[in-house]
Write a structure and sequence with these properties.
- By secondary structure, this protein is α+β, with helices and mostly antiparallel strands.
- The protein folds into three domains: 9-120; 137-198, Orthogonal Bundle (Arc Repressor Mutant, subunit A); 213-341, no CATH class.
- It contains eleven helices and 14 strands.
- The protein has helices spanning 9-24, 64-74, 89-97, 140-151, 160-167, 171-183, 200-219, 246-254, 270-280, 310-319, 323-341, and strands spanning 28-32, 42-47, 50-59, 80-84, 102-104, 109-113, 116-120, 187-189, 195-197, 220-226, 242-245, 262-266, 282-284, 290-294.
- A seven-stranded mixed sheet has the order 1-2-3-4-5-6-7, with helices on both faces. It has a five-stranded mixed sheet with strand order 11-12-14-10-13. A two-stranded antiparallel ribbon has the order 8-9.
- The chain starts with 8 loop residues before the first helix and ends with a helix.
């Protein structure tokens, strides 16, 4: 086998183990490093005289929280193969439903390239795997700060106190998050010319994953049931101090989606929340189709003040791992985020 593609040691170890599992199935795998014309590592499989080429995407952990962003990332690659440590049976089934081909180190796999079909589900790893601890920048305080920087690019050169206020974090948080981002290659210090974010697309993907796993669950205030269907269509926040988010914001932004869940973001003030419940006759219901979530930022909206920043709408859509929501997330990205993320 040729030398492994250039990648972090942990990722290379995962790839080695997953390839070994493939070999045990009678499939020959050849790793090919990136070339000047083709970005990313490549794998060539041979089985029964058939040759199949893949672009490798290594993800150390896959669960419901990051499945949406992974699917969105893979949709941008040509013939991707997801490689990971371990895929649980429910996640493996969902990956197959999404037509996402994968292999893991335990011997689970889904590859469908007729006439070749590999579908192994339920194999368990020999050792219990531990989730890699995220750097401080991707803990809740760091996630709030990164969110502010991605939504408001000019903040990167503001003084730390202004950044802390916009992100609603302690002043001391700014220093260590900035240091972590610099160490990880996401922040470049240009001296007198200021600072700039780098590798913003990767930073965005990591933020969406971290948000879904660590920050989003903390934001949920409660679930409710509306007595009048489609009440949100002719409703404006007005003086009720909330913003549309999630599927509702996406529907208003794109006209493409019919929300299954109506999402309102607002402050943690109980009186304001009660005013909303009373005004719209929302009844407490754990299985309801209305959710209230608490804001975690303090900066003003750049565009429509009735809706949360597009980045949050995008992240909430991907967190559901729902097919229709992921399609809508791509529209939101192309129309509202690409200009922020893909600029130098």
């Amino acid at each position: 086998m040729p030398p492994k593609p250039n990648m972090p040691h942990k990722d290379a170890a995962i790839l080695d183990a997953a390839v070994a599992a493939l070999l045990a199935m009678g499939v020959t795998a050849e790793l090919r490093p990136a070339t000047a014309r083709q970005a990313g590592a490549h794998m060539r499989l041979r089985y029964g005289g058939q040759t199949i080429n893949f672009v490798i995407e290594v993800k150390r952990l896959i669960n419901q929280a990051n499945l949406g962003v992974i699917a969105h990332r893979l949709a941008q690659l040509d013939k991707p193969l997801l490689v990971t440590e371990y895929v649980t049976p429910p996640v493996a089934q969902r990956l197959r439903e999404l037509k996402i081909e994968f292999i893991d180190t335990a011997g689970n796999a889904y590859i469908e390239k007729p006439p070749l079909l590999i579908w192994v589900n339920g194999s368990k790893p020999e050792q219990k795997l531990q989730e890699t601890r995220a750097t401080r920048a991707f803990q809740p305080g760091g996630l709030k700060l990164i969110f502010a920087l991605l939504c408001q690019p000019e903040l990167i050169n503001a003084n730390y106190r202004v950044i802390a206020e916009a992100a609603d974090v302690a002043l001391g948080t700014v220093g260590w998050v900035m240091a972590d981002l610099k160490d990880a290659g996401f922040l470049i210090d240009l001296g007198k010319r200021g600072r700039k974010l780098a590798n913003k697309r990767k930073l965005l993907d990591l933020w969406v994953e971290g948000y879904a796993r660590q920050l989003r669950p903390k934001c949920l205030v409660g679930r409710y049931r509306a007595l009048r269907p489609d009440w949100w269509k002719d409703t404006r926040p007005g003086k009720l101090h909330f913003q549309w988010g999630g599927e509702t914001a996406a529907a208003k932004m794109t006209g493409y989606l019919k929300p299954a869940v109506t999402t309102l973001y607002m402050t943690g003030d109980p009186k304001e929340q009660q005013n909303v419940l009373k005004e719209f006759r929302l009844v407490k219901d754990a299985a309801g189709d209305v959710e209230i979530r608490e804001n975690f930022w303090k900066f003003a909206a750049l565009d429509d003040a009735t809706m949360v920043p597009p980045l949050l709408t995008y992240a909430d859509l991907l967190a559901t791992a729902d097919d229709r929501n992921m399609e809508t997330a791509r529209i939101v990205y192309d129309d509202h985020l690409a200009r922020l993320i893909e600029t130098a």
